Amino acid sequence: MASLAVGLILEKIASKDKDFRYMATSDLLNELQKDNFKLDTDTERKVSQIVLQQLDDASGDISGLAVKCLAPLVKKVHEGRVVEIVESLCQKLLTGKEQQRDIASIALKTVVAKISTGNVAQCVVVSLTPKMIKGITNPDTSTEVKSECLDILCDVLHCFGSLMTADHEKLMNALLVQLNLQRAGLRKRAIQCLATLAATMSDDLLARATVNVVQLLKNKDVKPDMTRTNIQMIGAFCRAVGYRFGPHLNEVVPLLISYCHNASENDDELRENILQALEIFILRCPRDVSPHTDLILGLALEYLSYDPNFTDDMDEDQDEVTDGEEDEDEESADEYSDDEDMSWKVRRAAAKCLSAVISSRPEMICTLYIKASPKLVERFKEREENVKIDVFNAFIDLLRQTANVTKGSGCIANPSSPLHILQQEVPKVVKSLNKQLREKSLKTKVGAFSVLKELVIVLPNSLSEHMGSLVPGIEKALNDKASNSNLKIEALVFTRLVMASHSSAVFHPHIKALSAPVLAAVGERYYKVTAEALRVCGELVKAIRPNFDTPPTFDFVPFVHPIYSNIYKRLTAQDQDQEVKECAISCMGLVISILGDHLKNEMGTCLPLLLERLRNEITRLTAVKAFATIAESSLNIDLSSVLEQVVTELTTFLRKANRALRQASLVTLNSLLTAYSSKISPASYESIVTELSSLISDADLHMTALTLELCCTMMIDKKHHANAGAAIRERVLPQALILVKSSLLQGQALQTLQAFFAALVQSANTSFDVLLDALLSTARSASPGGPASKQAFHSIAQCAAVLCLAAGDAMCSETVSMLITTLRSSNGTDATQLLSLLCLGEIGRRKDLSSHSNIELVVIGSFQSPSEEIKAAASFALGNIAVGNLAQYLSLILTQIDRQAKLQYLLLHSLKEVIARQSMDGGAKGKMDLQDADVQKILSLLFTHCESEEEGVRNVVAECLGKLALIEPEKLVPALKERTASPSAYTRATVVIAIKFTIVERPQPIDSYIKSCISSFLLLIKDEDRHVRRAAVSALSTAAHNKPALVKDLLPTLLPLLYDQTVVKKELIRTVDLGPFKHIVDDGLELRKGAFECVDTLLDSCLDQIDPSYFITPHLLSGLADHYDVKMPCHLILSKLSAKCGGAVLAVMDALVEPLEKTIQHKTKADAVKQEVDRNEDMIRSALRAIDSLNRISGEPTPRFKAFMNHVVKVGPLAEKYNAVRHESDTLGAGDIMDLN
């Protein structure tokens, strides 16, 4: 059927009538585009010939259609026919007339673009390449043909460069000659071709090509045009091959810098080309360019102000002009124009080069503030607008890099901190930007606000002293009729950020000036401006009444009604964007919560309107949060008109599928019940309790915590809701008893569950005995929901302890006696014994149990149990009972450690509990309870056990020493330091682990002691014993995470040592003979894994101390090809580097492809167990996340990475996994992505 249709079409195509031919060609195109279209050999030949004939048709429309026919045709015919088509087109291109040549060129580009890789591509390349080389090199070929040949060759190299390896040398030689041609257009195309070729060339050919170009550059007699071409070629090579160009930089960079200094006065294009090339070196070869970075920075700064036609004197005169003469001055400045002045291109290239240094060199941040920051601020006055925007962007890059570097460890007080240096620069920055805000150009104003916005994000509260000078600029941006929406949005975003991050008192003198334009912006037609203005209104409301003092510090009353009426108009309007509706609701919630006492007459109309929005599916989530804001107000807003309806709506929301809505509803109900419990009916309480039982589950612990918190709130108001406790006991308690057995229960959910049991026992009609029995019985295997997990015993014990204390001393004492009796009876099950011990420990920690005689002996008796879990519980119980009365029980533990050699491990655990609680509770109590004599006894005991053969004992000793050091730093730190030189490796490892336990997140008195001597511990990374090295790496990781300031100054010394631990050490790999087979054991694996995890932590806290390019090659590359356990942290590191140091990663992207490709294509053996299969799947997903991060780096990816993405990652089953990972990345925050690994 297809052949018949084609036969009819081919007859019509032969018609002399142009319209017939056009329609027939169009029909042929439609046929060819059908998926089920097939051609036999004869028809294939005829169609190919006809399409090639149609290319020569006198009608341009018909030849254009014929070109379109080629795209589907080359996919339908066999490879021999494709080669014939290509050869015919080459003939037309090289020898045809002008019109034929143009059409043939377009047709060839179409064919090349549509051929898939494989045999067809190989055949086409073999046929096409020699003809293109001939077209380029033949001296008789016209310029136009050469130009087309170069274009086509560039496309072929881009698509199939790797298939042309045999011709690479010929192509290189042919193209290098083209760099010497007179025509600039041909030279430009030759540069593109060579750069595309370079991406797939061998290192040897690349070196020869580079040397050839460098030799031409060294020849000073060459015309300036040729010099510029050679410099562009160098830049193009580097852009194409990245890190592979690195070895040539030592020769190239000084050469380019000397050319720049010696360039003639008018050769601005040469300077621009040089700066562009240097920018590429910085971005693509960050490691090899390091020695030259200071020179490049100096050059960029020098040419940032290169303006030979405009002197500084003229600019100073401008600065002295008064505000009244400003407009006239601007006009006269605009009159200055020199169309031939190209110096602005040099300044633009310098700004971009400077940006590249800033973005790729976090370790130079302090140097950049000293050298570059003043220069950038000075150049805000740049007269060429495009360059000015680039200068702004460079300064924004500097601010963002500052945020990256100081994240989590920024201390403004430290004079060497980037934030401190920036703080000193703020007055100059603001002064300079204020001038820019007075300019006429909207683009300039938008740029100025962008800088200010970034400044506030990086350095909050830095503009307190400058608000007076900034407010007129904001006013003008919002009021000026010439302002566009972009400018208004930038001005409003800046205003919102600055108000949110500064004290309210700063704005009080300017409220009148700011409120009018902001409220006017609320009425704007463009929704983005309106939404942003409403957000600013929210901040404005907080600023005008920061607290509820009487009398108020600021007279806010005149602003109440104007703000309210403007927001109310937006709240009532129906025909507006979703974003505006949500902002209006949020803002109205703030207005009522802060200014509600001055809007009593308006409540009757406003609250029902918010209730209406609560009932609307589109706006309900925002309205729920607005009611929470109102309920939490200390003004006690009268909500009686809508309270019952609001509670009813919120109760129904608790059964909705939308998780965010359920969470917000729980929070709002809690706020409403706290503030208005007496006004809410018992029936509403009943319906709330009914819904709550279904929300308690370990599948969502955050939701569970909110639910239990709400239950506690409901049981507090016994006066108005006496029956709430009974309803909760009946409906919620069964779910709580199932939850307490969950192995996932922890954190906030566990704390609220404890509070829930305490509130329940204190509420009416709840028996303590029944509640305790229900709680303890959950540990029995026959209880509902299956047997309890090991973790559950600890949760049950904590809840039981809180329950006993809440019930009063008598009940508590009775319970302890019952638990002791259970322990004494020999017929109790393991579960009962275990739970009894844990309960005693939890109660003993909170209350002195010394009134129960011989309790300690009963607990020590359990040390003889055959169950390891009961032994551990007994040591936990003994330690915690001792916490309740140190004077009585501590000496007993110390004596027993000395006497009972077999029980040392358990008794040391008890001692650890005592010390850990002392260090956590701290304060005067801790110091008073733990006497000096006790500390000395404990110390001598612990140091004796440092050299224990058992690793478990040494680890407990290390934790005890660390926690003890938090209480007595002046004694412990020198003693620990002294033992870093111990001949025993066990002792050295123990004291290093001990130091790890002293470095906690909150500031401690010990910090100053550690700061002076931490190097003694961390330098053990180079210890001869691998266990000591592992301990030192772990300690460095902890310090970098909790207190980076302790280690920052040591990193130049420590990083090379740390990187050395990432290398596979052959001497640590041994073969174990297991009889029928041999097993290879890698003792260095844990150390390598720990080293990479440490680098991962350092990237978060000490980025400015790390040169990523030195770490990526070779350390990260080797890690990506290492064992599973090492690959996982390496993928995580790669994701972080992609986000924070994209340039350094982009430079080595080709080298990253191979290890990642092997990982994602790794297949498990056919007989692999499920655990191995799951681990492999986790590893593939982890690698795909890293690949997704690479794909998101801004900048042009390399051809090899593109091919890897298109032919490996986005194909077959991997494509599905990759899309899932991508979706994950889009929906989760960056921090969550990191946690997934």
UniProtKB/TrEMBL annotation:
This is Cullin-associated NEDD8-dissociated protein 1. Keywords: Repeat, Ubl conjugation pathway. The gene is LOC112281383. GO terms for biological process: SCF complex assembly. Belongs to the CAND family. Pfam families: TIP120, TPR_CAND1. Residues 312-341 are annotated as: Disordered. It comes from Physcomitrium patens. Residues 1046-1208 form the TATA-binding protein interacting (TIP20) domain. InterPro entries: ARM-like, ARM-type_fold, CAND1/CAND2, TATA-bd_TIP120.
